[in-house]
Amino acid sequence: MTFNRFSQSTSRRAVLALVLLASLLMGSCKYVRYIKQLDPTMAGTKPVDHVPYDALLKKHVDAQGMVNYRAFLADSTALGTYLTTVSNNLPNEQWNKDDQLAYWINAYNAFTIQRVLRGYPVKSIRQLGGDKTLVNTVWDQQFIRLGNDKDKYSLNDLEQRLIRRKFSGEYRIHFALVCAAISCPKLRNEAYTGSRLQEQLDDQARDFINNPNKNKLTPANAPQVSSIFDFYPGDFKKDDNTLSKTINKYSAGPKVDAEIQPTFMTYNWDLNEQK
């Protein structure tokens, strides 16, 4: 046990050293920003009404989670108005955890849609940024205002510094955060709400796990699974959880072996656009 803790601590220090070195070599502090947790808050606010966003999703997103971006362009002002409300009403600890998480999932997904609309037409969201991870990709562009902070934030700030850390252990976020690509989970055609969040997250998990375009669960000892499980392996190994337990909990059909050796499917970054 002592050796494991020492090894983990040593590994963390080594990773931190590499990140700091990389930031110096890149001549940029953008790597370093992702080390610090982000938890903006605003006293006196109440849970945001997501009805305007819900209406936009019902209008422009189909049952498969595909988006009619061309039509959505006509409602970009309405989306912007909703996101202004989001930016001006940050959560606080008086909100329950489900209201807080629903807020941040909606914020991430809605800001992603806004970024696509600003660059539309485009074949892939990745074309809207550079190719250096945690430096200049579309997810590193700082265009998001949070409260009265003079700084602006990126989609990676929301996901990596805030949602994954503040809600550590809630692996279902990876079935709800949608990066506007075919291989992402489907974008729900309704907003997340605190009162229904647990139901919605379970539904997203079932939909994602059982979608043969995202996961092929046979053979049981070597399934082909989404690269999302490879992107965030540690998130599925907390609190005695494992990848196989996650799959088997939500699989409506085949179950996988406890000691699986999965192949990760190639990620399709094409835009999740209705054809």
TrEMBL record:
Entry protein name: DUF547 domain-containing protein
InterPro entries: DUF547 (IPR006869)
Pfam family, one: DUF547
Superkingdom of origin organism: Bacteria
Domain DUF547: 93-209
Classification via PROSITE patterns: PROKAR_LIPOPROTEIN
